[in-house]
Amino acid sequence: MGSQVFLQHLANGISLGSLYALLAIGYTMVYGILRLINFAHGDIFMFGTYMAYYAITSFMLPWWLSFILAILLTVIFGVMVERSAYKPLRNSPRISVMISAIGASFLIENVAIVVFGGRPKTFPVPEMFAKVLSLGEVSIVSVTLYTPVITLLLLALLLYVVNKTKTGMAMRAVSKDYEAARLMGIDVNRIISFTFAMGSGLAAVGGIMWGMKYPTLLPLMGMMPGLKCFIAAVVGGIGDIRGAVLGGFILGLSEIMIIAFFPALTGYRDAIAFVLLIVILLVKPTGLMGQNLTEKV
After folding, report:
1. In a domain, 293, yes or no
2. Running DSSP on this structure, what letter comes out for residue 294?
3. Where are the strands (E) in the chain, listed by range?
4. 278: which residues sit within 8 A by CB, 6+ positions away?
């Protein structure tokens, strides 16, 4: 493989890994606080993509305003899912909450098929993100460069919020023991809703970037990326934000590079994530940056 082709695949792998990282952060934040896998997270990602699509095509809004509106609507939608599907079961057995999460995912997907239609739609990519840039001998679509930059900026902002603000301190307290946090005067329900809001916002950004990179929209488009991003969170160490980002980049690069070096495995692209998951669980069950966590009862 020539250096030009290698760099081309490397850029694509980093870009895909950035998208996985944005979604994996949402999984890991919710798990870190509630010890809950939000199975509807991939569907929230899908919702954000459709909101941006309709804002541009139906309401004829500028792309930047459409993206902001889509992110805000997705944040509201994510909080609504938390309030309706998870909050009523806060003190229920963990299996009940997990079943509710799976049910919420199927409900969102089927409602989306009815509301958005089952036919594929083409995401309108703004010219700014569709330009082909030449870096030496490598030609890259501009969205491929923007995606990792946006991911790292959002990661820096998120780490600042979690580590340097009072809300972030409350989030860390709730993640340790939300009964004790409640006794210390922390509004646990507000913190949990805030966590879902941040995760949903990141999912919306990831969905918009995904729509510009892979412009075909479908109501079930969040299923496989959602599963892969859950795997990325587990690989990096679920519950650790930086681990989720690391897992996303590892998964994205692995997918692209394995297919580049072994084209015969193209049909097994989705299986690569599950093989990686099995290997990580066998070698380091807590993930690359994860810590042993005591189960809440």
Report:
1. no
2. P
3. 121-122, 132-135, 138-141, 216-217
4. none
CATH number of the domain to which 252 belongs: 1.10.3470
Burial 243-274 (b: 16+ CB within 10 A, else e): bbbbbbbbbbbbbbbbbbeeeeeeeeeeebbe
CA atoms of 174 and 163, how far apart (whole Å): 14
Token pair in block for residue 16: 């895909």
Could you tell me the residue range of the domain that residue 179 belongs to? 3-283
- Among residues 14, 7, 263, which one has the least CA distance to residue 139? 7
203-240 pLDDT per residue, tens: 999 999 999 999 999 999 999 999 999 999 999 988 88
Residue position matching structure tokens 């010890």: 35
DSSP state of 238: T
Neighbouring CB atoms inside 10 A of 79's CB total: 18
Q: How many domains does the chain have?
A: 1
Among candidate residues 257, 103, 51, the one with its CA nearest the CA of residue 249: 257
Q: Could you give the CA distance from residue 44 to residue 73 in angstroms, rounded to a whole number?
A: 10
Q: Is residue 248 part of a domain?
A: yes
Would 297 be classed as within a structural domain?
no
- The tens digit of pLDDT for each residue in 117-155 reads 989 999 999 999 999 888 777 788 999 999 999 999 999
- The residue-averaged pLDDT of 280-297 equals 73
Per DSSP, the residues of 270-286 read HHHHHHHHHHHHHH-TT
- Are 293 and 35 a contacting pair, CB within 8 Å? yes
The one-letter code for the residue type at 251 is L
8 A C-beta contact, residue 53 and residue 212? no
The Cα 240–Cα 105 span in angstroms is 24
- 267: CB partners within 8 A, 6+ apart: none
